[in-house]
Amino acid sequence: MLIIIAYLLVNVLCEVSANQAEVITTKSGSIRGIIQSSGLSGIRVQKFLNIPYAEAPVGQLRFKKPQPKIPWKGILNSTEDLIACIQPWKPIVTMTEDCLILNVWTPFPRPQNASVMVWIHGGSFAAGYSGLYEGTNIVAVGDVIVVTINYRLSALGFLTTGDNRIKGNLGLYDQRLAMKWVKENIAYFGGNSKSITIFGESAGGASVSAHTLSKGSWELFDRAILQSGNMLMPWGVMTDSQIKDGLKWFLGKVNCDNDENLLECLRNVTEDKLKSVANSKEFWSIWTGPNVDREFISDKPQKIWEDGDVKNQEIIIGVTKDEMFMELQHLLLKSTNISFYLKHFEESLKMHFKNSSKAVYEKARELYKPKCIPSYLEALKPSVAFQSDRIFICGSRQEAKLRSKLMNTTNVYVFQYSHASLVNYIPLLYPYGVFGFAAHGIDVMSVFGAPINDTRFRSDDRTLSMRMILYWTNFAKTGDPNSGTRKLPIVVDKVDTLPPWPQHNDSNEEFLDMESFSQMTVRTKLREKHCEFLSDPEGFIEKATSGSTKNVMTLRAWLTMVEMMLIILVAYFLANVLCEVSANQTEVITTKSSSIRGIIQSSSLSGIRVQKFLNIPYAEAPVGQLRFEKPQPKRPWK
């Protein structure tokens, strides 16, 4: 009987502990994790979730810099119950002020001296949480350690009074303390504390950028990856008016006055009230983010760059091709009329250039509006391109150029993610689909390996995802995405290697355009003309026209110019005529019977069009003497 009981206990305990990782003892305390399978057969990882790195920022610690977590006793059991800081999205997890936790994924068994990648999530400094990002497939493919972190959001993380009462940037201080915890404890997980890469997207990318500008963070990381975000972008730091508007709005919502009792009042606001404020309908119209507090961020980012007071490290900088589809997608619910989208584009230009000359407005139209627009989705693209350049792409281009030129950083790598998957990676952001646009945030799911074990994705999505993981993890290990593992762990469509990714330098400005798994193209000068125009519209026009009147024109030169103008006029006329005629017509196909012209039409899959050729006769009409006869091949027609 005792033998049977012992047998049952062994089996039960075995089943209970089969998915439990070893106990890791850190400076903060002991932690037991969970073992789980990855998307690659036979490869398992261990994860340690909800590790507190700071004391709960509540009561007297609300609106103060984070305090290191007091070591706990006993074993902290990693749980699947994820935690989020207070935000408007109502995530299906525990939402609380006591949210300063981090998660660690490691290879199984425990590695030795593995490089570490610390992920800072995006979400406009107001939403998102670490648990949205599953590090398993990065670990499985790249053999690194992945850490994701929470930080305080919106008012709790970034509200400032503009003076010493609440200086703001508390969310950035949270991130720094989490990075410090990783630096001091990651060796216990088998990590290399001297090989730490911080990476993030959108507000997360801007946060990574802020740490490169803030000396207090420099010793805590070695490399950086900026995806769709940095401090040079127009939203990187709050303006004075945004600071005042945000403070006034928040204090009004929690019924506190801006006086000497402000902090006491704010610390007495209930957590339920804070959650209610986060879900106010006006919430997203109030911008709260980093500010120039003269402490964490010592000056305006442009001035810090001018002074060269920036951490000089290896870096990857990139964007998605259609970043601002995120903000413009709602238009697709309103119309399928081409003129509707072109009108919206014209109004956007007029609004942005309302204080500029007519020449500037016309130049913007010339740069962004294509001659041929065959569909309503194509008609949306000028608006997407204009806003993407203005809000995201040109800021990324500027940082890449500054690092290549001023910092003399050798290892600068730039990418553009142009892959338009048929699968909507992020339904939370894109409830109606992505319509073939390489939209904001789409690259993140590739980096985290979402397509690897999701059957909705195609083989090209999986291959591109594995390539990106290898680029990112090679970079984390060596500072060079080309150095390290170059073989994909799974061969898909006979693709098993990484294409070379050239360094970006001030002369060639090369970048890798990630269009698909089979088309990763090296290009130069990312959006050069458009960004130079947006940076200085009047100067751009003056530069383009200067020199034409400085030299005396010879008769031969004048005749040559006239000839060229005639050629351009003819080409312009033909292009417009052909565009109008052929917008919905296919090329002419010549068969053995004769020539056929078809029709182009949109399919039910976003952004994909097909051509159709209807009513092609393959036999003579079965009438008269041919009735009740075998069919006769069609005679070729003219």
UniProtKB/TrEMBL annotation:
EC code: 3.1.1.-
Pfam families per record: COesterase
InterPro entries per record: AB_hydrolase_fold (IPR029058), AChE-related_enzymes (IPR050654), CarbesteraseB (IPR002018), Carboxylesterase_B_AS (IPR019826)
A GO CC term assigned to this protein in UniProt: extracellular space
Span of the signal peptide: 1-18
Presence of the UniProt keyword Signal in the record: yes
Name of the protein in question: Carboxylic ester hydrolase
Record organism: Paramuricea clavata (Red gorgonian)
